[in-house]
Write a structure and sequence with these properties.
The protein is globular. The protein has helices at 55-73, 78-94, 96-107, 111-132, 160-173, 188-199, 214-221, 235-245, 270-282, 302-313, 334-349, 381-384, 400-407, 423-432, 465-469, and strands spanning 19-20, 22-24, 27-29, 36-39, 46-50, 146-147, 150-154, 177-181, 207-209, 228-232, 251-255, 261-264, 294-298, 353-356, 371-374, 391-397, 415-419, 437-440, 459-460, 473-474. The longest helix has 22 residues, at 111-132. The protein has 475 residues and is of the alpha/beta class. The chain has a 7-stranded mixed β-sheet with strand order 14-15-16-13-12-17-18, sandwiched between helices.
């Protein structure tokens, strides 16, 4: 096996500041909430102090967004809105290296993922949606679609910059204004995005960014001045939001948890499938709502697949997220590490066979070794609950019908993967799976032009693509 010399990216590129302020009505201002300290999960060091919003700050931001919508943005021609959105897209691309390093410092993900996936895709979302701004009448959503007004958006910590772009870009393209709350543990790239928005000379109040904990998000989504709520996060919080908004006439989209099945048939290209399995569960330390955390393998090739999987996982490099050779970075927080550890212990207690990568872990930081459970039954917690970490459960099946039944045996319905040489089987099974996204002979492929979303306890509504525009339009 190759030995790799360290290849660290310089943290100085991130232009890290000792403190950050919230962004309201076109200005960076101190919040009245209790300041929070954001931590580097790879070293447990404090990166910066961030001011947070109070209830009054939320009210001020929503009113600023309303003024901007009524006076400027809502009445601005789509072609003019597009110019601002294109400008933001270009500026994200220009500052890509800075954003990638800051993302890895604040989130813990490997720099090669921030650099090659998160930041380019964030820029691509602004580029793509800018193109729609003057073409909404031709989107197939009615002859004269109108914006909704003010969008309240709450995003998670697993893809901080990308989720911000995912939410903000379509809202702006459709003529809405935005109040966004980034995750408590990863606010920094959203606030640098606010710098870009300010430098792009977006009219004041069109985008407002309020750091804070869950109470700020709750205050935002329940505010009477919000016309549209977009939330990405846990199913538990999504249910609370849905209950609180029932009957209030707000448009809502929820993108929640998942427990995706990655199904491997005996005629699949096994080496290719193993790469897809590894990408499906260990990308971003498994902090992915659509992660392929349940591997369903046809019984006749199960032993071979597991053997190949162990060999491949043994080559993964775990460590410093800023090292360009790192494959698996740090778990985002101590709280999340504790949850992963608890569920893994439950898997052992319930009788599953645990295999752990032999790769050494750093002495400091929140790290968890890639783990594979074999002999898993559908009744076990590790097969039912979203772990949101680098933990894979392996189950087997004999027939395609059994594979479908096991894949659908979950309250979630966000994504799934199919590995087979037969195109007819792919089409047959994709129609049977209750999942919003089904990948065939690949996994974790995302594009701004493609809609994304789930069913059942994975939420409702679609984001991305032409379909995703509807969530931000009165049609």
């Amino acid at each position: 096996m190759w030995e790799y010399a360290p290849a660290p990216e310089s943290r100085d590129i991130a232009n890290l500041k000792p403190s950050y302020r919230m962004f309201v009505d076109g200005e960076f201002v101190e919040g009245a909430g209790e300041p929070l300290k954001t931590v580097n999960p790879a070293t447990e060091e404090v990166l910066a102090e961030v001011s947070t919003a109070s209830k009054d700050d939320v009210d001020h931001a929503v009113k600023a967004a309303r003024r901007a919508y009524d006076r400027v943005w809502g009445r601005m021609p789509g072609a003019e809105r597009a110019k601002y959105i294109y400008r933001i897209a270009r500026m994200i691309a220009e500052r890509a290296r800075e954003l990638a390093v800051l993302e890895s410092l604040d989130n813990g993900k490997p720099i090669k993922e921030s650099r090659d996936v998160d930041v380019p895709t964030a820029s691509a979302h602004f580029f793509y949606h800018a193109g729609w701004a003057d073409k909404l009448a031709y989107a197939g959503l009615g002859p004269d679609p109108k914006p909704l007004g003010v969008a309240g958006q709450v995003i998670p910590w697993n893809f901080p910059l990308l989720m911000a772009a995912w939410k903000i870009a379509p809202a702006l393209a459709c003529g809405n204004t935005v109040v966004l709350k980034p995750a408590e543990t990863t606010p920094l790239t959203a606030l640098v995005l606010a710098e870009i928005i300010q430098q792009a000379e977006l009219p004041p109040g069109v985008v407002n960014i309020l750091p804070g904990a869950g109470d700020v998000g709750a205050e935002l989504v329940s505010h009477n001045g919000i016309d549209k709520v977009a939330f990405t996060g846990s199913t538990e919080v999504g249910k609370l939001i849905q209950r609180s908004l029932a009957g209030r006439g707000k448009k809502v989209t929820l993108e929640l948890g998942g427990k995706a099945a990655n199904v491997v048939f005996d005629d699949a290209p096994l080496d290719q499938a193993v790469e897809g399995i590894v990408n499906g569960i260990f990308f971003n330390q498994g902090h992915v709502c659509c992660a392929g955390s349940r591997l369903l393998v046809q019984e006749s090739v199960a032993d071979e697949v597991v053997e190949k999987l162990h060999a491949r996982i043994s080559t993964l490099r775990i460590g410093d997220p800023l090292d360009k050779n790192t494959d698996v970075g740090a778990i985002n927080s101590r709280e999340q590490l504790t949850r992963i550890t608890s569920l893994v212990e439950a898997g052992e207690q319930e009788g599953a066979e645990k295999w752990v990568s032999p790769c050494p872990l750093p002495d400091k930081g929140f790290y968890f070794a890639p783990t594979v459970f074999s002999g898993v039954s559908q009744a076990m917690r590790i097969a039912r609950e979203e772990i949101f970490g680098p933990v894979l459960s392996v189950l087997t099946f004999r027939t395609p019908d059994e594979a479908v039944a096991k894949a659908n045996n979950t309250p979630y319905g966000l994504s799934a993967g199919i590995w087979t040489d037969k195109g007819s089987r792919i089409l047959w099974m994709a129609n049977k799976l209750r999942a919003g996204v089904v990948w065939a002979n690949t996994f974790n492929r995302f594009d701004p032009t493609a809609p994304f979303g789930g069913y059942q306890e994975s939420g409702f509504g679609r984001e991305g693509g032409r379909t995703g525009l509807e969530a931000y339009l009165d049609v």
